[in-house]
Amino acid sequence: MNPIAASELKAFIFALSLLDEPLPDAVQREINTVNLPTDIVKLSAIAQTHPPLAASYHQVQEFLDKNTEVRSKGVDVIADPPSDSSNEEVENTLRTINRELIELDKENCQPILKAANPVQAAKDFIQGLLTKTKNHI
Asked: Which distant-in-sequence residues (6+ apart) come within 8 Å of 106 by Cβ?
């Protein structure tokens, strides 16, 4: 999977995990039709069809883009950005997960996209990663 596709997939899965309520049936059915890795390009368009998903998707993309910029310039060059307390928990979770995952792949994500409740499946997946991370510290 190329880096752009991996980033899109990661952003979508993380965005799903941030939602508080299940998706509308129409959006859920559309997600269930996605086959990885060929349909990754559909995820962004699907995210835009449901405003809460679109908002969390953009929030995650901004974090991942900012994180990529810092990595590409080197940590010694960039000072820590000022913290926004409203996004701090999300950013801390994403930072932890981002360190753990080099790439989300078909085996990890296809079951989330095919689940009866993709939001809960994404939450369970992310919680599993956080638990794994805590156990390794």
From this structure: 1, 36, 37
